[in-house]
Amino acid sequence: MMEKREEMCYQFVEDEIASLISPPEGGSSFTALLELPANQVVKLLDSPVGFPVPEVGNDVNLVKEEPVELRNSEDSDPVVSKSVKRKDREKKVKLPVKKSKNESDADKEKLPYVHVRARRGQATDSHSLAERARREKINARMKLLQELVPGCNKISGTAMVLDEIINHVQSLQRQVEFLSMRLAAVHPSIDINIDNMFSAESGSLMDCNFHGMVSPPLSLDGQINGHSQQLWQPDGLPPQPLWGAEEVSPNFITPENSLLSYDSSGNSGEFPNT
Amino acid sequence: MNTMERKKKVKLCADIAMASAKTTPTSWSNALISNARKCEQGTVLVDKLIGPESQLKLQKVSNNMISFHKRVQCKKILKRSCNAAKKTKRVGDSRLNVATIIAKRLVKKRTKVLKRLVPGGESVDEFSLIKEALDYILSLKVQVDVMRSVVNATEVLNGDKVMKSVK
């Protein structure tokens, strides 16, 4: 069940990123911003799904970096990784893997470092294998995240990367708050009254606003198209009124005024002009 | 109306717009929308912005999420008991074990924080959490860019308006 979900997840992420990359008409800032990391992300997405052996070896080495002392782990790791592949149904190589699993059991007794692992392995064999499979998956995803977050490429170790990611998310959220504060402060005279805005009478108001706002040529249009075609949905109601209100046009202020301050009757007369 | 309330409303609108812009709904987008629906201002907004049919879909998805959340909790309880049993067995190689234990503890702390940050992160297992965070970061970047250009546009236009009125 986990595997199915994971395949769906991969599919989903690929779809999302593909839709984000696809046609940026305007060469504007954030599509360029999106294109580069998204391309890399797509590239990276392709590689873990295939899971060739040497790459898994690297991943396993990544896993081993967490404990500070790495002794004879490299010897046992490729063998262990092969046995792990048996668990992952995505892997195509199955027969040789089974053999290596028996080998790994034999090896576990030979190497001194593995002495500890043999104990754990004997205690909960399937558990440790499943855990290792989990770790592989998580590390693959962490690689993707590393590509996405700037400045994470050089950091090794899950904890530090997670740290960077958390900082990034927090900074982005703070930026959103700050920008919304600026937006709110830009029109101090306008009264945003949401309940009235969406009352029954204003149903037609929204439609009129929508029609008025689609036509003017926009410098933002390229950006919005680049962002996703998802924004322009056929039924027209959802995000349009918000983002549509923010399109650059000579009539910019008036649709927004009429949207935001339904109370003032003077403004509501203006939008038919757009 | 003071700025704080306006800012909250603007942010709410922006969040809902961002979440509803995803055609293939992810866990965080659904969580954002259901969170928005909980506060009284948000219900009206969500109803009007998103429309009733997609709300039904959202309901289904959130029901699935709730059952999945329960499953995740059960798994966690099981895992915790297993780990407790394991820890009593761990004896030798103190240095190596201490290092791994410390590293794991750090990672766990970070994942807890990340779960709090990403909307809907608490009801997702660790593996999908990373995928959700990836997606969320992308959308946040886009949102920041769009809002920034909006603010610039309004400021430019306001500047023009002021100039015109001065003239």
Number of domains of chain B: 1
| Structural class designation of chain B | mainly alpha
Give the H and E element order of chain A.
HHHHHHHHHHHHHH
What gross morphology of chain B would you assign? elongated
Largest protein interface? A-B, 86 and 73 residues
Instruction: Figure out the total of helices of chain B.
Output: 6
The general outline of chain A is elongated
- Count the E strands of chain B: 0
Succession of helices and strands of chain B: HHHHHH
Low-pLDDT sequence parts of chain B: none
Given the structure, what is the number of helices of chain A?
14
Mean of residue pLDDT values of chain A: 52
User: What percentage of amino acids of chain A are in beta strands?
Assistant: under 5%
Largest sheet entry of chain B: none
What structural class results from the helix and strand content of chain A?
Answer: mainly alpha
Helix content of chain B: over 70%
Please state the oligomeric state of the protein chains shown.
heterodimer
Structural description of this entry:
The complex is a heterodimer of chains A (274) and B (167). By secondary structure, chain A is mostly helical. Chain A is 70% helix and 0% strand. Chain A contains 14 helices and no strands. Chain B has one domain (3-166). Helices cover 86% and strands 0% of the residues of chain B. The radius of gyration of chain B is 22 Å and the shape is elongated. The model of chain B has no long low-confidence stretch (mean pLDDT 76). Chains A and B meet through helix 1, helix 2, helix 6, helix 7 and helix 8 of A and helix 1, helix 3, helix 4, helix 5 and helix 6 of B.
